[in-house]
Amino acid sequence: MTSTTTPGQAQAPAAAEATAEAEAAADEAAVSFEPDVPIRTRSHRIGCVGAGAIMADQHLEAYRQAGFPVVAIASRTPANARAVAERYGIPKVHDTVDALLADTDVEILDIAFPPDQQPAIIRAALAQPHIKAVLAQKPLALDLDEAIALRDEAAAAGTVLSVNQNMRYDQSIRVLKQLLDAGVLGDPVFAQIDMHAVPHWQGFLEGYDRLTLANMSVHHLDALRFLFGDPSEISTVTRRDPRTTFEHEDGIVVSTLRFPGDVLALSVEDVWGGPREEGFDDDFFIRWRVEGTAGIAQGTIGWPHGVPSSIRYASTHATGGQWVEPSWDTHWFPHAFIGVMEQVQHAVETGTAPELSVADNVRTMALIEAGYRSIAEKRPVRLDEFPV
């Protein structure tokens, strides 16, 4: 007698059971996910340098939500500092950065200034004994030699110097790191970060001879280091972007990196994306993908659309090959900045090195320097050419 049951009907119970098992495994795994850091310390007083979009809309909003005490602010334009102080209830506005640095209420200095001006502010802060820590922007400086000098000077002064590599605190990147560390994807094989978006607040970049690689690729190259360790080599190619109105070399940048275990990674930055004419419906995005021997993970960074970052993954052993999509309500901007300042707060409290230490960041700066050598010499560059 021949059965009249179709293959789809026969497999339905098994498929349903597999799906249920995958969901149960995913639920169990999700319990250990930590897309945002717990706040361990929030008692050390912050003085802010800068009142532009990043400070006003991201740093200070994050600190407000976290309950971090901001006691003073200064900016190149005192009127802007006063407006931001009123918005966030900051008790003191200093007319100059020097006046803020001399304010003995300030324990942690938070800088949001262009990188050509940042080293001088850091050095002035290192001379103030009441300033226990400095949170600097990335890139730390315009070249590797300056970054190394700042690292060594901070160590000599006994001051914590941390660098705001905030993509390490993006929720999707943090969960991806947790998946990799747990072996959910098996051995990583290939990774890619692809950015097509315009950082509208960084008009100061127009005056630099180093543009996209130093100032935007630095996010992604550092995130790849966070995920996979230090690469052995980088090969970077670039072209001038004809959609800009100023002279530059590295407008659109593509970097290929090789990591331990022969992991291959690609980082793409198209940060003058367009057309940008009035009424043109843009297609801006930042996406990433990681493939391993036992699974795949892919995700998006929620900026610039004002939505949470996302991740979806499938694993042969952890999810039964089914796709799982954990979610959260927090965003890269501003909530990642809570994690960045929290690790500085905790370093001051415990006398330990911050997670985003300047010593580690110098290795990211070395990777940037190697990328520029690759552009200039049109060859892959090994990182051991830049001992740090």
UniProtKB/TrEMBL annotation:
Gfo/Idh/MocA-like oxidoreductase C-terminal domain ranges (all copies): 177-383
Alphabetic keyword roster: Oxidoreductase
SUPFAM superfamilies referenced in this protein's UniProt entry, alphabetically: Glyceraldehyde-3-phosphate dehydrogenase-like, C-terminal domain, NAD(P)-binding Rossmann-fold domains
Coiled coil: none
Record-linked InterPro entries: Gfo/Idh/MocA-like_OxRdtase_C, Gfo/Idh/MocA-like_OxRdtase_N, Gfo/Idh/MocA_oxidoreduct, NAD(P)-bd_dom_sf
One Pfam family, short name: GFO_IDH_MocA
Family: Belongs to the Gfo/Idh/MocA family.
The protein's name: Putative dehydrogenase
Organism: Herbiconiux flava
